[in-house]
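Wait, can you check?
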Amino acid sequence: PLRAVLQELSHKYEKTMAQVALNWCIQHDVIPLVGCRSPSQARDSIGCLGWKLSPDDVQKLDQVALSKSTLESK
């Protein structure tokens, strides 16, 4: 289910699934640490900056990503 939502949002925002996932982390005031093995991976990761998921889309990801999490949600 998480992959499907990430794919849906990647099409909506014209971003990669990784960019959507990283942007979602940032929306939760988390600074993701990203390892890059190539310049293209670095460029892809940078694509998570300069835009925001809508609050509804953040909530949609929260529902699927945190449904099996052991972490407390807000």
User: Anything to note?
Assistant: The mean pLDDT is 92. Helices lie at 2-13, 17-27, 39-46, 55-65. The CA atoms of residues 10 and 16 lie 5 Å apart. The longest helix spans residues 2-13.
